Amino acid sequence: MADIPTATVGRVVTYIRVLEELEAQNVLRASSGELARRAGVTPFQVRKDLTYFGRFGTRGIGYTVAVLRRELLRALGLDQTWNVVIVGMGRLGHAIANYPGASDYQFQNVGLFDVAPDVVGREVRGLTIQHMSQLGPFVASVAGTPRQVDMGLLTVPAEHAQAAAQALVAAGVGGILNFAPVVLQTQDLHLPEAFAAPGRREVTVENVDFLAGMKRLAFYMLGPQAGPAEE
Ligand code: NAD
User: Fold this and answer.
1) Own/partner pairs for 219-228, CB < 8 Å, 24+ apart?
2) C-alpha dihedral (85, 91, 96, 100), degrees to nearest 10
3) Residue 218 CA, ligand 1 centroid: distance in Å
4) For residue 90, which atom of ligand 1 is closest to its CA?
5) Atom of ligand 1 at shortest distance to CA of 119?
6) Hey, which of 111, 173, 184, 224 would disulfide with 152, CB 3.0 to 4.6 Å?
7) Pick the CATH number of 6-75 from 3.30.70.1350, 3.90.79.10, 1.10.10.10, 3.90.1720.10
8) E strands within the chain?
9) Where in the chain is CATH 1.10.10.10?
C-alpha cells in the first residue's frame, strides 16, 4: 500500500462517499462511468485508482456497491475505531468536538486538552477538558485497552503548534491533523519506542487549512487576466 499516490487516496475518500450515496438510494450496482460522474472524475481515473486496492467489478456489469464500499473502507482503515484527542479547545477545538459527523467513521473523541485555566474543566459532549500536563498520563491510561490514542487534532495558535505537537508525540500519539497555519518540523518529532510500530511511519502529519483554500479560490476567481506582474 506504500506506493499509492496521495491524490488517489484523496479520490478514494470521495468514491466512498459516492458509494454511500448510492447505497442510501438502494442502488446495488454501479459502473465506473456512474462513479466517475458522481465523483467528478473520468471513468478511466476511477478504474486506475481502484487497481491499487484489488480487482473489483465485472466488465459490462460494473461494481457491486456494498462490496466496493466495504473493501475501500477496509483499505483505508475506516472499518476500525480510531481514538482521537483534540489539543487546543478554543473556537475551532470546540466546533470540532461538537461536530457529531466524525463518529460515523469510527473516529472516537476520547480526550480534550488545553492549557487555559478558564477552559480546563469545562465539559463538551460528555468529555471534560483536561490540562495538557495530563496528556501523557491520559494516553498511557488508554494504551492497550485494547486500543491506543491514534490521532491528535491540533487546534492551538500557530506559535504553540510545534510544542503541542511535540507533547502529543512524546505522549505516544503518532498521527497529527494540524489545523495551525504552520509547517510542523516532523524531523524533530520522535515517538517513544514503546509506541513505534515496526514498518510504520513514525509520525504522520496531515494539514488542513480552509484559508489556504480561500486564497486559491480568490486567485482562480480573478480569471484569465491574472498574469505576471511587471516591476
Ligand atoms: P483560539 O484562540 O480560539 O483557541 C486556541 C486554544 O488553544 C486556546 O483555548 C488556548 O488556550 C489553547 N492553547 C494554547 N496553547 C496551547 C498548548 N500549548 N496546548 C494546548 N492548548 C493550547 O483559536 P482558534 O480560532 O480556535 O484557532 C486555533 C488554531 O486553528 C489557530 O492556529 C488558527 O490559525 C487555526 N485555524 C485553522 C483553520 C483551518 O482551516 N485549518 C481554521 C480556523 C482556525
Assistant:
1) none
2) 120
3) 24
4) 4
5) 9
6) 173
7) 1.10.10.10
8) 29-30, 63-64, 82-87, 107-114, 123-124, 127-131, 151-154, 175-178, 204-207
9) 6-75
**DSSP type of residue 156:** S
Structure confidence by residue, pLDDT tens digits, 106-115: 899 999 999 9
What are the residue ranges of CATH 3.40.50.720 in the chain? Answer: 82-211
Mean pLDDT of 198-226: 85
Q: What is the pLDDT of residues 151-168, one digit of tens each?
A: 999 999 999 999 999 999
Residue of 138, 155, 205 best suited for mutating to test ligand 1, as the one with most atoms within 8 Å of CB: 155
Ligand 1 center to residue 155 CA distance, Å? 4
C-alpha cell at 71: 473493501
Q: 90 CA distance to ligand 1 centroid (A)?
A: 6
Residues with CB under 6 A from ligand 1: 87-93, 113-116, 119, 132, 155-158, 160, 163-164, 179-181, 208-211
